[in-house]
Amino acid sequence: MTPIRVLLAEDHETVRQGLRLLLESQEDIEVIAEAANGLDAVKHCQTTQPQVVILDISMPEMNGLAAAKAIRHILPKTAIVALTRHDDEAFVQELMAAGASGYVLKQSRSTELLNAVRAVAAGGQYLDALLTRRASEDEEAKYSPRPATISDREKEVLRMMAVGHSNKGIAADLNISIKTVEVHKANAMRKLGLRGRIDVVRFAILHGWLQEP
Q: What backbone torsions phi and psi does residue 81 show, to the nearest 5 degrees?
């Protein structure tokens, strides 16, 4: 098995070294580079082209949000896992919008980070279990009283959005126009009362859409 090639960006050296030991204790993960700030993370990505980048949000020179946007621009196929203590929905929303595929809390169990790395390397998305549990509880209270009334096509568009596909990618896979994708997405989100991508991801998790083929 070829190990997952990871770049680790964390400005606190002690924390960074601890994370490296954790990651490299796994046979399927290899840390190929480290960065102590966001700017170096972007530079190292250009030279090493990792499969996965683990980004602390609060870093000098360039913060994790800006670094995520820069990395997505130069290496769109590289997956990004945000690692932070911030569990506020606004941070999750911002990082997901910037292109992060995973969001893990530093205060969670170490297995959360390992699970996130493997999930995003395989092309999926990953939300920390604490956030997922909170999202499920919130969405169950919000959505359970009423059944979903969206069409099968609207559901498929939202499901693909939740797992990270772009409008262009959805259009190509479903053989429809990008404008049609946008219409389906807008209609479905309006019907379900979803306000943004994080709402769509939460709804998809609650209804088991992410486990569908």
A: -115, 120
Q: Which two three-digit tokens encode residue 29?
A: 């993960």
| CA atoms in the 13 A half-sphere facing the CB of 114 | 14
* Beta-ladder partners of 82: 55, 103
User: Residue 205: its pLDDT value, please?
Assistant: 77
Sign of the dihedral defined by the CA atoms of residues 104, 19, 78, 62, in that order: positive
Dihedral sign computed on CA atoms, order 57, 60, 66, 67: negative
pLDDT tens-digit map of 41-57: 999 999 999 999 999 98
Contact (CB, 8 A) for 99 and 73? no
CA atoms of 142 and 92, how far apart (whole Å): 19
pTM of this structure: 0.64
Looking at 39-117, which runs of residues are DSSP E strands? 52-56, 79-84, 102-105
